[in-house]
Amino acid sequence: MMALAQSIGSSRGVAIALAVVRWAVRFVAVVLVIATFNFVLVHAAPGDPAQVMAGQSGSADEQMLAQLRADYGLDKPYPVQLAIYLKRIVTLDLGYSYRQQRTVLSLIAERLPATLLLTCSAFLLSLAVGVSLGTLAGVRAGKWSDTALTVVSLFLYAMPVFWLGLMLVLLFSVQLDWLPAFGYVTIGVQMTPFERVRDIAAHLVLPVVSLGAVHLAIYARLMRSAVIDVAHQDFIKTARAKGLKRGQIIIHHMLRNAVLPVVTVAGMQAGTLVGGAVVIETVFAWPGLGRLTFDAVLQRDYPLMLGIFLVMSVIVISLNLITDAIYRIVDPRVSLRAAA
Amino acid sequence: MNRREFAKLGLMAGALGIGGIPLGITRAAGQTRGGTLNTIIQPEPPILVTALNQQQPTLTLGGKIYESLLRYDFDLKPLPGLAQSWEVSPDKLTYTFKLFPNITFHDGTPLTSEDVVFSITKILMENHARARNTFSRIDKAEAPDPLTVVFTLKKPFAPFLTAFDCTTAPIVPKHIYDGTDYRKNPANAKAIGSGPFKLKEWVRGSHVHLVKHEGYYRPGEPVLDEIIYRVIPDSASRSVALEQGTVQLTQWTDVELFEVPRLSKLPHLTMTTKGYEFFAPHTWLEINNRIAPMNDKRFRQAVMYAIDRKALLNRIYFGLGKVATGPVSSKTKFYEKDVKKYDFSPEKAKALLDEMGLKPGPDGKRVTIPFLVPPYGETHQRTAEFLRQSLARVGIDLQLQGIDVAGWAEKFSNWDFSMTTTTVYQFGDPALGVSRSYVSSNIRKGILFSNTCGYSNPEVDRLFEEAATATSDDKRQEHYSALQKIMVDEVPVIWLLEIDYPNLMDKRLKNVVTSAIGVHDTFGTVSFG
Predict the structure, then answer these.
(1) Architecture of the domain made up of B187-274+502-528
(2) Residues whose CB falls within 8 Å of the CB of residue A37, separated by 6 or more in sequence, listed in order
(3) pLDDT 10s digits, B504-528
(4) Who's near B87: CB < 8 A, 6+ residues apart?
């Protein structure tokens, strides 16, 4: 009996180890394919960074263009540029942005925290509020409060995010003067760490609410229909027949089963957390990665663009893994094999 | 010191558990010395060293950090900059500048004539296309003593004294740059110049913080303690920032032109369009003269007649500028107003097109021409739509093509276009900012702001060259007048407008625009009240 138990245990360990190895190999392969794909795409567009820089300086001559191209390594043939690029990636060197005169890694590292703070706050806000409102609407399906919630969530869903942002600024910053209109932190003022945290939090409110609003509506609607679905199933009737309280039924029986579609969508949404906030970052002058990406694309800053795309793809792949893991926790029927 | 304005957070913040945060909107109120100026930089410059990068925002911000030998009044007459006096030899070949004593760089090192010679003959010659054009005419640059610089030209070049503003000829420290790879020098991040303000902090994506250079050589300057340039990428947010008082000054296209009428009426703001005389932005409809039917002078004249440029000015540019009459801006010297006039007249346009044999087809269209819409904001987009409507009335069908910055620059500079609009600066003298767009020697494929339209007239070439090297202003005027008359008849491009960009500013601000380079100047005397 002991031997059998051990062999079951170790075979399970082997399975996990195998899954991890399989996942790691797949991860590296996917990253390299993405890197190659990015490189080809980026270089397929007409116009190069030298031209853009020359265009913005109001005057240019051959010497300047030649020098810019040499600086960027744009004077070499594409396959050579690609080979150099892939070789660098393997050594975790993301290159140097001549435009910004900094290493790509340092530029990304500088902007990533601001973006994560913004998008993760918005993600958590929309998830928490969306799931609660959706549940509420679902259990009160057909009543006036359900209709009200549905209308509000449709309204939020249909609203362009930049417009919502601007309206919030007009109301809370310009008219009421309660919250800062944009920026990450008040500039040029000495603050204690505690004051600084509160200051950043105040700056965070409007962009997070604007960004969270759309997703909140999606989660609320998903949750509502899932709750209605689950409510009619037999095990809920059984639970009710057992005499469980309404609150217990909702929390222990309904939510766990109804939340799966939300996890699926949230997992996909999580993939956009890193780069998905370009509009909000622009409206609120938030110094994040989305804007860095946008500027890099406009300016054809090749090393920076490629670096950001790569970092984003790594994060997205990792988030997918995390989503799978959460799936397994919420619904044990999902197997390790499938997750791997 | 700055006064912090405290505003209470209300319901909303309270609900999130962060009620009662003091929101500092730093404002310097009612003071004559010190204070913080908050303004906008857009887009964010890649680097602040103006000797190495000449993009618009770099020059605006870098003007506070780097100075040059001269400044220019609104009539473009030279004023002392780093040089307190200057002399030109009678043969117009030797220029002698005397520097102010006691000038120091931000690292404490004295600025001497050696730094000037190094900047002009080395770092700028290698990295600054516009400066290279002028300073390649220097035969010898000498520094006989620490406060004297002598330039000897190969042959006279009339606008030489117009090329020493801080955007064309910034002076950088030789001890930091000499013998290094300029573009990769780690000191670039510190941006060490000799201007009244020095770099304290640059948080990418957020702001650039400049503070007073304590050892500045001009007594009493700078008046302000700090300048904060905020990066605000969205134009609506920039307007809000100005309206709200978070920033006290805007420049160039920080505010969309359609917002200007509204914002300039706000009680706390004032507006000026002065301070762009040196740049004198000239907007035109660029026409590829190589392609039929645009290679026919009559076609280009017809386009000139077909566009109601006054309506364009009033409707799209909200009256911020004036109708251009030819290649030279009326804001600069050597402008000639007695040239052929093109009043708005669709009839004359149609007559010219008929004369060419371009008859309208059954759908009323004579010809279809692709038009590249420059990706530089709302105003260019609206201008393109306006032009499309105008030309449709005389049977010229424009097909608008949207494109991004890099694509536009590539197609435009490689002559792969029929029509587009462009805005070009005059840089204070026709020899610096005008001739480059029209002389045959500057027809260079792949180079933006060269003679992209492909215009070539040996007589005009000769007049431009003689005007640049003539030693008397009268002689120059004669040549420039003659060539303007020829060119306005031949219309190599459709001159549309001389644009007046607005500077919106807080009413308490004084001395913001004091020279022909306006907001690019040092801001040494700028003050609140």
Answers:
(1) 3-Layer(aba) Sandwich (3.40)
(2) none
(3) 999 999 999 999 999 999 999 999 9
(4) B95, B96
Per-residue pLDDT band at B56 (split at 50, 70, 90): confident
Burial of B443 (0-12, 13-18, 19+ CB in 10 A): middle
Average pLDDT along chain B: 90
Homologous superfamily of B66-179 in CATH? Dipeptide-binding Protein; Domain 1 (3.90.76.10)
The single-letter DSSP state of residue B42 is S
**Which CATH number is associated with domain B282-499?**
3.10.105.10
Q: What pTM did the predictor assign?
A: 0.83
How many angstroms separate the CA of residue A122 from the nearest CA in chain B?
A: 13
Q: Are A167 and B2 in contact (CB under 8 A)?
A: no
Nearest Cα neighbor of B491 from B291, B280, B296 is B296
Peptide bond into B222 cis (omega under 30): yes
- For chain B, give every domain's residue range: 66-179, 187-274+502-528, 282-499
Q: Is A271 in the B-facing interface, judged by CB distances under 8 Å?
A: no
Q: How many CB atoms lie within 10 A of CB B437?
A: 22
Asked if B43 is an interface residue toward chain A (Cβ–Cβ < 8 A), one would say yes
B406 interface with A at CB cutoff 8 Å: yes
Which phi and psi angles does B69 have, rounded to 5°?
-70, -35
Supply the mean pLDDT for chain A: 82
Angle at B510 between CA A185 and CA B40, to 5 degrees: 30
| pLDDT reported for residue A58 | 56
Alpha carbon of A149: minimum distance to chain B alpha carbons (Å): 20
Tokens 């006036």 belong to A144
